[in-house]
Amino acid sequence: MAILSDQIQLIPPFCPNPRCLFHFGTNLKFYVKNGFSPTDKPPFRNQRYRCLECKIQFSANTFGLDFRKKSEGLSEKILHYSLNGMSNNSIARLLKIAEGTVRDRLKTMSRQSVLFEKENYPKRISENVAYDGFETFTHSQFSPCYVNTAVGSHSMFIYHNTFSPLNRKGRMTNEQKCKNQELILKHGLYPQNSVYTETLYIMKNLSVLAQGRTLYTDEHKSYMRAYRSFDCSMDLETISSKARRDSSNPLFPINRLHNLYRHFFSSQQRETISFQKHEGALMEKLQLMKIYRNFMNPKFVKKNRFDPDAHEKSPAMYVGVASKILSFDEVFGVRKFKSQVTLDQKEKDFIERVYPYSRQKIVA
Q1: Which of 176, 223, 294, 361, CA to CA, is 20 to 30 A from 321?
Q2: What is the pLDDT of residue 1?
Q3: Does residue 21 contact residue 53 with C-beta atoms inside 8 Å?
């Protein structure tokens, strides 16, 4: 993104120093202009400022998504291309940039989206919630995984996405069995209760916000065990996995979201040569889809006779955390700092790309 806007050039939203009194924003004028610095990119000079409180110096592009990036204006294109079915290599060829640049921009946007979501998350859930998992793999089919997903039954707002590693199961050739055994001896087994652990985390979070509502799941044993392990304020209703998941099925919102994953992610399509190289890349892609579907797109593209506003209102508008469908600049326009937002441990691990059981090296 180039220079964000005249407003951000002239009115810095906060001091970038985490120890400053004005780090969390203020209506007071906390800065003075402090000259210009030359740049190689338009407008070829960058307005500099100095904080009156902590005396730290910063510039106009400190608050932009392209801060310390060599090329400007690529992030929005990369986001839309990535979430509409193009692989990272295809995007790199189209934009004539390095594939590493695409990966870096997606990583930056996913981190920013977590901070944006934290500030714009519903304080109360006034609808029933559907919960289920999306099974896929990272790096190879010897590292299957489970993405635990919670979606609003009416709004289709995506409340949670968490990651659970799985051990390979099912029929294997003798060669595959030997390869699998080698990996187990080298790295050890993945945790046997990972789905239970992540389900418990999501249910506890939902229980605080959706008291008295119903949680719809299938008959997965880990879901039942997690629900019974604490005093949940939600009612649980299980739906047979064999039941047809049309719009009358309470699990339809989950099935629709998983179909969108298959349709819009090149790495999740059947018989594809594209795949996520590690857990961090997978979860960052899902996090971006989460923000994209929740805030930047209508609930349905076409008109729906059962929900006349579905083509004009985003899921975030249904749950009351947005007044309109947001543009790219309204979501990513001002770079946020993690010191400005209170994050739980799982959210901190996401930003730092911490996946303890990964068999791949993940660069933070």
Answers
A1: 223
A2: 36
A3: yes
